[in-house]
Task: structure prediction
Amino acid sequence: MPTGVDPLASLLAERSARRGSFTLSSGRQSSLYIDARLTTMSPEGLALIGPMALARIREMHWQPDAVGGLTLGADPIAYAISYASALAGGSLRAFTVRKEAKAHGMGKRIEGPFRSGDRVVVIEDVITTGESARNAIRSVQAGGGVVLGVLALVDREEGGREAIESDGHPVTALVRASDILPRLPL
Result:
């Protein structure tokens, strides 16, 4: 298990995960709900996630110019990674992919310092079906970006990772649902 998984899995279990009966954004029913934003938008979560995700990107031998994904879940993770890169002497830019292109202004779907030709790691908060990451991948590619892979905060281990990988994009996750579940009360 990579260094740092235990504290991050514990923080996610404490703040973001719940047992019960839930309908997920994918429409699936689940006995586990993870609202990652309760962790990713906290100082403690950001402090853990940024350096840990940056280290994982390096372990994967990805050399991106930018990181980002579908708003809102990917945003704080991408920003934490970008900030961690600055502290480490790098300059990894963060961007946001809108769910739909703006109907005004320049009508952009990708906001921030993303540029055509950028090598990109797509960020996802929680992978279930993989559709949010796939949506972000399509937007990045349409904008001229080259997708190196997908980094998720949590892989729910419900087939989303495999769906993304079947499209030819490697996936890595900082934490798996199986890392969180043992830390939750029954």
Remarks:
- The two ends are 24 Å apart (CA to CA).
